[in-house]
TrEMBL record:
This is Unannotated protein. Transmembrane segments: none annotated. Keywords: CBS domain. InterPro entries: CBS_dom, CBS_dom_sf, Diverse_CBS-Domain.
Length: 161
């Protein structure tokens, strides 16, 4: 039964990875070449983040200018607004993977079930989970597409019986 199947049975094992110091343009080209939407970022063997096509889209249209209010003729800039503007600009202008990646990554063990992976993806609103072994070494990645492919395969095998 699919929900009890370990993710090791459906995960991708030849995983594209990046290092924090990799050039963003090269990373974009590699994601396109491999036709994948995201990849883990490794510092040595440690997973430190995820790089997705969403991180790579130039966010100039989404860079929010700092909010300024006028009070008795003085212009005051809201500190939280300035902080967000600085972070947006830094991300938009980043030239390395480490500057634009999403820090941290959701991880799961190879013996976790497909049901567990699907639940995590749903609850966290993510598209992929990094699969690591007991020592913390990357062994694969499981994406929504991997789960959907298995669901279709299971439906087809039931219909074909």
């Amino acid at each position: 039964m699919l929900r009890e199947l370990p993710v090791s049975e459906i995960m991708t094992t030849e995983v594209l990875t990046f290092a924090p110091g990799d050039d963003v343009r090269d990373a974009m080209r590699e994601l396109l070449r491999r036709d994948v939407d995201g990849a883990p970022v490794l510092d040595g063997t440690e997973v430190v983040g995820m790089l997705s096509t969403g991180d790579l889209i130039v966010e100039e249209a989404r860079v929010h200018l700092p909010t300024v209010i006028t009070l008795l003729g003085a212009y005051l800039e809201l500190p939280s607004s300035k902080k967000r503007f600085d972070a947006d600009m830094e991300k938009a202008l980043g030239s390395t993977v480490g500057e634009v990646m999403t820090a941290g990554a959701t991880v799961i063990a190879p013996d976790a079930t497909v049901e567990e992976a699907a639940t995590i993806m749903h609850e966290e609103g993510i598209d992929r989970i990094v699969v690591i072994d007991e020592g913390g070494t990357l062994v694969g990645i499981v994406a929504r597409g991997d789960i959907v492919r298995e669901i279709v395969r299971e439906f087809d095998s039931v219909d074909g019986e």
